[in-house]
Amino acid sequence: MGRMIFPNLPVKDVAKAREFWSGLGFEFNEDFSSADAACLVINDQASVMLLADDFFHGFHDTVPHTGTEMLLCLAVESREEVDQLCEAAGAAGATDADARVEHGPMYGGSFSDLDGHLWEIMWMSPS
C-alpha cells in the first residue's frame, strides 16, 4: 500500500465545513470524524482532516496564523470539472471562485473556503 496523507486544517465550525464540502460532492470517513473533526475524503490515499480550531491547536500547542499557511491543489478529470467545482464552491459561500487561468497544458481555478483556506483546482491535459 502506498503512503497516505492527512493534511489537518483548522476550521471555525466543523458542521458548516462538512455542509460546504458535502455540497461540492465530497464524502466523509465517519470512522475518523467526530464533533471536533471531519475526515474529508479526497481519494483512497488522501483525506483532509477539518478540525475545530481549539482541537487543532491543542495537538501541539500551536497558535493561529494570520496569513496563508499552505495552498492545497486538487487535480480533477476535466476542464469542465474545474469550472463546476469552482462555481459550486462560490455558490456555497467560497470567495474568489470566478477567475480561471491557463498555463500551457494546465487549466485551473481557485477559491478560499469558508475558513479562508486556499484551494486550487487544476486539470492537466494528458497530451
Brief sketch in words of this structure:
With 127 residues, the chain is of the alpha/beta class. It has helices at residues 14-23, 53-58, 79-91, and strands spanning 8-11, 27-28, 37-43, 46-52, 71-75, 100-103, 106-112, 118-124.
User: What is the CATH fold-level name of the largest domain?
Assistant: 2,3-Dihydroxybiphenyl 1,2-Dioxygenase, domain 1
Q: Count the beta strands.
A: 8
CATH class of the largest domain: Alpha Beta
Task: Give me the Rg, rounded.
Answer: 15 Å
The CATH architecture of the largest domain is Roll
Number of domains: 2
Shape: globular
Order of helices and strands: EHEEEHEHEEE
Could you estimate the helical fraction of the residues in percent? Answer: 10-25%
Rounded to the nearest angstrom, the distance between the terminal CA atoms is: 29 Å
Mean pLDDT: 93
Strand content is: 25-35%
CATH superfamily of the largest domain: 2,3-Dihydroxybiphenyl 1,2-Dioxygenase, domain 1
Residue stretches low in confidence (pLDDT < 50, at least 5 long) are none
Biggest sheet, open or closed, and with what strands and sense?
4 strands, mixed
User: How many helix segments?
Assistant: 3
Structural class: alpha/beta
Cross-sheet strand order for the largest sheet: 1-4-3-2
